[in-house]
Amino acid sequence: MSLRKKFMKFSKISKRMAISILILALVFIAGSVIYYRSLKFLPFLYGILIGSAFSILKVFLLEYAVDQALKMDKKQAGNFVSFQYFIRLALTGVVLYIGAVVPWINLWGVVAGVLSFQVALFAVRLAPKN
Questions:
Q1: CB of 50 within 8 A of CB of 105?
Q2: N- or C-end of the chain: fewer Cβ atoms within 10 A?
Q3: pLDDT of residue 127
Q4: What does the alpha-carbon distance between residue 20 and residue 24 come to, in Å, rounded to a whole number?
Q5: How far apart are CA 73 and CA 117, in angstroms?
Q6: What are the φ/ψ torsions at residue 77 (nearest 5 degrees)?
Q7: CA-angle at 95, arms to 127 and 33, nearest 5°
């Protein structure tokens, strides 16, 4: 199955969150270009790209966890959702660690990309429903 077909299967909210994360990434990138006005913005760009890609991955992992939990009984679903939460938390730690130790990736860019998940969540919740 192609990536486009897989993306089309996701819910409207997940797609809106992914688009919101991409828009936030573009705003951060534009801000860094304006701030640095040279190629010194590249480490921040790499950080934003990694953090935003991870945030989009978290959106789809969360939707997968919810879809699977709805097919389980209450106790199994609770354990599964808790396990999925810890997986997402551990992956967040790995991404932040990579941003901290790789010299050509700006940690603040990674942090901005990772936190864009929460900002996108609020943006989707506050946006008018179509």
A1: yes
A2: C
A3: 74
A4: 6
A5: 29
A6: -65, -40
A7: 65
List of long-range contacts for 32-38, beta carbons under 8 Å, 24+ apart = 32/109
Per-residue DSSP letter, 10: S
- Using an 8 Å Cβ cutoff, are 116 and 24 in contact? yes
Return the closest-CA partner of residue 80 out of 97, 101, 62: 62
Whole-angstrom distance, CA of residue 74 vs CA of residue 79: 9
To 5 degrees, how large is the angle CA 92–CA 81–CA 115? Answer: 30
In this structure, of 42-46, 111-115, 119-123, the range with the lowest mean pLDDT score is: 119-123
With a cut of 70, say whether residue 113 has pLDDT above it. yes
**CA–CA gap between residue 64 and residue 86 (Å, rounded):** 14
Domain ranges of the chain: 14-126
37: left (phi over 0), alpha (psi -120 to 50) or beta: left
Coil, helix or strand at residue 72: coil
d(CA 53, CA 85): 18
Show the DSSP H helices in 1-130 as ranges: 3-8, 12-36, 42-69, 74-101, 107-126
